[in-house]
Design brief:
By secondary structure, the protein is mainly alpha-helical. The protein has helices at about 5-15, 20, 25-65, 70-80, 105-110; strands at about 115-120, 125-130. Helix content is about 55%, strand content about 5%. It is elongated and about 125 Å long. The termini are far apart.
């Protein structure tokens, strides 16, 4: 905009006259507005941090409450399994065995004293099922 043009000069004078500057906010009002904005942003950050901390504490509390507690029975079982078994005496060590290949009928003959069955599943697989009784507890 050319400030030397008389039509434009009149427009500039109207816009920048002392009367229009008088309606502008004072420096004190601008500083108060800026300080309010800073305080509201700081308060918002504080509330977000407090909410996030509360959520983390709630999750940790829920995780700690949901962990199964170990009973003395399970600890004693763990302790019992960690102890090594005593070595077998020299005469009780198993001897070297030869491995023979047998067919299904030969395997069933070897297991004559044990209830067994050769099962064919609907998808064509075959499996040998044995019925084994656990020894009575002493």
């Amino acid at each position: 905009m050319n400030p030397h043009d008389p039509r434009r000069r009149d427009l500039l004078d109207d816009l920048l006259s002392s009367g229009s500057i008088r309606h502008a906010p004072s420096l004190h009002d601008v500083l108060a507005t800026v300080q309010r904005a800073k305080r509201s942003r700081a308060a918002l950050r504080c509330w977000v941090a407090a909410g996030a901390s509360g959520m983390i504490l709630a999750i940790l509390f829920a995780l700690l409450r949901s962990e199964p507690r170990a009973s003395t029975h399970s600890i004693s079982l763990i302790a019992a399994t960690e102890t090594p078994a005593p070595p077998l005496p020299a005469e009780a060590k198993p001897a070297h065995f030869e491995i023979e290949r047998v067919d299904d009928e030969g395997l069933l003959d070897l297991l004559a004293d044990i209830p067994t069955a050769l099962v064919q599943w609907p998808d064509g697989r075959q499996a040998l099922m044995l019925v084994v009784h656990a020894p009575a507890p002493q």
